Task: structure prediction
Amino acid sequence: MSERILGGILLFVSVIGIWLARSFEVTISYEPVGPRAFPITVLILLGISAVALMFEKKSDTVWAPPAVLLRIGSLFVVVLTYAWLFDKLGFILATSLMVIPVARFFGASWKQGIVGGVGLGAGLFILFDRLLDVALPTGLWLNSFLG
Amino acid sequence: MDSTFALLMQGFAVAGTPENLMIALVGCFLGTIVGLLPGLGPINGVAILLPIAFAMKLPPESALILLCAVYAGCEYGGRISAILINVPGDAGAVMTTMDGYPMAKKGMAGPALSISALASFCGALLATIGIVLFAPLLAEWAIAFGPAEYFVLMVLALCCLGGLVGDSLPKAAIACLVGLLLSTVGIDSNSGVYRYTFDALHLQDGIPFIVIVIGLFAVSEVMLMLQQAHAGSEPISITGRLMFNLKEFLAVKWTLLRCSLAGFFIGVLPGAGATIASAMCYASERRMAGKDSDFGKGDVRGVAAPEAANNASANGSLVPMLTLGVPGSGTTAVMMGALTLYNITPGPTLFQDQPVIVWGLIASLFIANIMLLVLNIPLIRVFVKFLSIPNWLLVPGVAAISMVGVYAVHGNTFDLVLGTVIGGIGYLLRVMNFPIAPFILGFVLGDMMEQNLRRALSISNGEVGVLFGSPIAIGLWIVAIAMLAGPRLMKMREKRAETAFS
Result:
């Protein structure tokens, strides 16, 4: 079933993609093949493969049980939030806050999560920002302390 | 030959500077650790370290030395967890569990680890010598390729990978095509037309390579690790002697040689990687050993064969990337992406234009393998300690380090969020058994493929026949179709033979 749905989505994507590609026009062209041909060829092949996928008989997709899927979904949301807050909160705070729930998902206790979070946040900041010269955001709230 | 030797010495001069030696050592160490951690393999190690190497502003040759050392180290590390906990640390080490774990259970963990380290070294060393001998020749031959041949060659690489990985042809094809499609996002360099940017400023230069790589090999990997989370089994402790003895060495000497050579040639072929090489060599050694061998119950040859093969093929797969600019595996595709970040276009001219980089890299492979052998025999107990890193610390660590890399290179959170979303989609596709290597290869090759196609058709004034115009091109087309259809036809025939018997 999952394959059918995905095949449908991909078919839709390829139709939309080809429709969008109509507007890739150049006023003056020095070459016989413009910017349109390659994406359109790829999209046509993608559409054919999508149809083939929909008609494939066997399906070997095994989704995780709902409870696990829910945890994986939450993990995704945590990482997404982490990505979004990365420079707003600064590396140390954002990382510490991300580690706690992620560690919990992987079976750590609250105490382990908090210690691990602060440790990773501060440790990686020192490693990268101070030792390896890879600049990381400190976040507005810490700037006043670190100068 | 003479000039090759001189160039190789020049390479050693590059790889032998104190900084580069240090970088290689760090890379070997990190690589072994990444390799031995179940769930993380060479492609993850290279993917996560690539942006960091770039952000540390390492010069291109040093960055490549780091990535190659990590790559080589991973192939060594994978066997440690295979032998001690019966879980392969990376895909190439699957076969090592067959005899490695039984050996460890018999109290022979030390010899199993040291003989497999020797096998890894032997495979990698012979393959690196193979690179020195064959790569310049191949590069010289490929210089004659025109844009049409190049285009077909890339089609061939995609077909090989698509034909060999995964069970479903539509899925492999979709992975390739989506990769190619995503590579067209951004301003078209020939005409200045905006393609699929949806008016987003961040997408004008296309989807950054690092963002894709981190999404697929860090974010989605982390999600998969949560799905497969199993209670970590205790590693078997190493008791007794650490070194193999002369008798064991003599038992494996021909196995080492055979599997190293076979592994190298399998590695050079696009598409067939370390996993296939180690499985094939293990099977053939088992057959050659005959019925009354100990294979499957802890035979030293069963440990040596897959390790020699997978290291040899890992190094061998650098050949098509360096000489043709067409990588044949996911990991080498990521490495090629690293080269393009430095504005270096891999291909046959690389040997002439950038001898420092190519020969520095080859020399560093020799150095890295010697380091790895030295690290892996006496220091094995140190590495075993890393097996006890709990996942709850490892996974958030991986997530944080990946974000550090992306942020350091691009300096905005848009790319972090984009990478995470790509990772989420990647997770869904990986659960549905979409192969990831053809996707990354498609993405890396997409732009070159389109450029070569357009150039070829410009030369022929739009005549499509040029793609089938030369004997080389026709030969490549035939091989491409054979590679795409061959493995499946063989599988179908096997199935039919099975049903006929029963």
In short: The first helix of chain A runs from residue 2 to 21. Chain A touches chain B through 71 residues (CB under 8 Å). Chain A has two domains: 2-55, 66-146.
